Amino acid sequence: MSESLENEKTLDNLSHKYLDATIYLNVKSECEMNEEPVRTQDVKIIIKEENSMNKEHMHIRTQIGTNIYKCSLCDKAYSKSSHLKRHMMKHTGEKLIIPKPYQCSLCNTSFAYNTLLVRHQTTHTGEKAYTCSQCDKAYSQEGDLKRHMRIHTGEDLYQCSQCDKVFLRNSELIIHMRRHTGETPYQCNVCGKGYSQNS
């Protein structure tokens, strides 16, 4: 019996026995975007009862742990084909339109998720609920505090190879490196003057 048929049979047997279970199977997967098969890997299968009236009807979702969907135009790779499709839109210039039903009552900025709206609203109130335990800095976002804490712990910092400057974000290091290289990728449409960052 082939490996894929054996795995299919195993999955079928397990799906009848276990509801709301997480099962790990070793299966071969082929990337639809690439011609050659990807190496054997662990695929997480989550089985959930989809319809309580029909227990035989299962919803099976796979989560592939490796980035098998590779962009043919650059070196980026993704674990889901939908993520690759969204990335490819950057190359083609297409715009992804996401509905944004949550609107700020103070500035009319709209958001796709209520959590993003709530986070945004702290910019109007000036509330800074997240305070650093090492120094007096305070932040309105928990993520900003976590990023700041790396200054104190020294972990995951981005160091310039040309000087002793250190950055919390790789994007900040990239902009800084342009000072050393003289690269000016952003041009003024009117006068043609180049800039190291888009502002």
TrEMBL record:
Residues 69-96, 102-129, 130-157, 158-185 form the C2H2-type domain. Krueppel is a gap class segmentation protein. Its main location: nucleus. The keyword Cell membrane does not apply. GO terms for molecular function: chromatin binding; DNA-binding transcription activator activity, RNA polymerase II-specific; RNA polymerase II cis-regulatory region sequence-specific DNA binding; zinc ion binding. GO terms for cellular component: nucleus. SMART domains: ZnF_C2H2 (SM00355). One of its GO terms (biological process) is segmentation. Belongs to the krueppel C2H2-type zinc-finger protein family. It holds the Pfam family zf-C2H2. Keywords: Developmental protein, DNA-binding, Gap protein, Metal-binding, Nucleus, Repeat, Transcription, Transcription regulation, Zinc, Zinc-finger. This is Protein krueppel. InterPro entries: Znf_C2H2_sf (IPR036236), Znf_C2H2_type (IPR013087). It is found in: Nucleus.
